[in-house]
Structure formats: structure tokens, C-alpha cells
Amino acid sequence: MHPASPTRVQPPDAADGAVIRIALCLNRAYTPWAATTMASCLRANSECSIRFEIVHDCSFSKRDIEGLQQIVDSRPTASIDFHPVSPSSGLNELPTTCEFGNVVWLRLYLPEVLAGVSKVLYLDADTFVLGQLTDLWDSPLGEAPLAAVANVVEPPFRSHVAALGINYPGGYFNSGVLLLNLERMRAEKTLERLLRFALDHRHELIWPDQDILNRVFTDRWLPLHPRFNSQSCFWHPAGWAVEVFGEEAVREAKRAPVIRHFEGRGLCKPWHYMCPVPGYREYRRVLATTPWANTPIEDRTPVTRMIRLLPGDFQLRAYRRLERWRTVRSGSSSPVP
Hints:
It is a single chain. The protein is of the alpha/beta class. The protein folds into 2 domains: 7-287, Spore Coat Polysaccharide Biosynthesis Protein SpsA, Chain A (Alpha-Beta Complex); 304-337, no CATH class. It has helices at residues 31-44, 62-73, 110-113, 134-137, 158-163, 182-187, 190-200, 208-216, 240-245, 247-255, 280-287, 302-307, 312-330, and strands at residues 7-8, 19-26, 49-56, 78-84, 119-123, 127-129, 146-150, 173-181, 222-223, 230-231, 259-261. The strands form 2 sheets. An 8-stranded mixed sheet has the order 1-4-3-2-5-8-7-9, sandwiched between helices. A 3-stranded mixed sheet has the order 6-11-10. Helix 2 links the parallel strand 3 and strand 4 (78-84). The N and C termini lie far apart (39 Å).
């Protein structure tokens, strides 16, 4: 299973060891959000040499590539490479869910796609960089295959984590921000192991790539401070994040995040009009500086504008009622919880 050959658009200008390599894995639908992630990286790390490694599923157009290239054009120390992963790589054979398509599996191919690279920082395309990445990049990995921030799991799903053989809280990591030891992963032939586990356990997965990575690397990953992956669930009033990280660490991750991660379903994304979590306004300001500045905010309608006028506590309730009404009207058999 071999990915297609990469397309090099711009070579790096700094010595390889001084470059922070950031990988994003996406399809065409996520290019506006990946562009925003990239722009936020450059804005918060103006003194660093950064190379973006864009791994995609061959759905990109020429305009997509040119737009992402434009993000780095104004920075002499920034560069970008594009790495298409073809269907013949086995990508289309991997399991998907109604919420997660096969694009989530692209990160598993990074050790092989970036064959000559020893380390890379992987970021989901719904992340937003607010601080310096140097401390994260310089985190010692030793023999560990990766470093990550633990995931906050809602109570109804904790039995799923236990079924994977993983202790909670603290033993299950979030796959949206990963510092990957590619050299170690290649030595262990992890791509083959990860793909085999995915195929053998396709009916047991809720968060496909995340479940597989956690299962294969159980107790072998290094924990990072939550400020490097400040997840939207940290703001949940139930305080589930405190169970995982402790009150002080959560407070710091919310007060001074290095990377904000807008994880969760559509409503949690900063490009959704009803996004209820902090950071969406700044995200949209940076989106407006990219070639995708005119991308419309999702679900901005006369009804949702009226809902936005309600007090904060009532907005989500009203929107959930709207979703239920839409579900009934469309005749869907899958009601919104």
C-alpha cells in the first residue's frame, strides 16, 4: 500500500532541523478550514520556519492548491508540499461512519508519505493556533511513537473506551493534535498494524482513527499539557475535563491555549453560525484573511439569527428544537438527541 508521489510546490529555505513540520490531512471540502489553520500558525509563529505537509485524497482542484500556496507566499521562511494519497493505497477499503469519512484515515499514512522525515506535528483542520509552537515541537519523544493530549470522554461513551482495553480518565488521547515520531513508527511498521486493526475491528469503532491509534499505542504515548489541544469540551459546565487534567491545568488551557481544537459535531465548529464555544470570532477574522474569505458561515438563516438574540442558556435549547423540527419535516428516521 503506497501513496502517490508528493508534489513539491516550494522547497524549504531553512536547515531541515530548524523547520517545524506541520501536517494536515484533508479532502477538498476542508480546504477553507485548513487554510485558516495554516494562517493561524503563521500569525502566531512569525519568527519560525514552518513547512506544511498537505496530505489529501486526490480531490483537490488546481485552484485549491493555488489557494493554499498563497497562504505561505508572503512568508520567506514558510513552505508547502502536497501529498496525494490515491485510492489504490487501500484508503477506500477502510471503515467509515455517518460522521467520519475515510479522510480521517489519512493521518495513518504519514510515516510512509513523509518517508525521509523523522518527526511531524499533525493538526486537524478544525484547529486554530494561538501561541508559539516551539515548546511543543521540542518536546522529547524518546522511543515513544507519539505525544498527545488526553481526550475528554462523555460518560455514555466511557464503556466504549473500556472495551478497547484503555483506562479512563487519562489513558485515551485525542487524535486532533499529534506529535509523531515517524522514525519510530516506520521501524515498528505501524501503518500495516493500524490498517489491519481497522479492518479487523471495523464494527467496533466510534471514533475510527482515534480508536485505532489508541488501541495500537496503548500506554506507549507521552501526555502533553492540555493547552496544546484545548478542546471545546473544556468549557462544558459538567466539568468532565477536570476529571482528566485537574482544575489548574484546565484553567490554564482555557486561559492561554496554544492550540484551540473545535472538536465535536457541526454545531461546535467555528464556521457554524450557532457555535457556542469561545474563539469562533477570532477564527472567523483569520478565515477572512485567506483566499476563502467569502466562504459562507453555515446555517446562518433568519431563524438562527433570531435564536442568537436569546439569552445564552436558551440558545442551544432553541436550536435543538429547530433541529428536531427539521428532522421531522425532512422525514428522517434519525432524530436529533
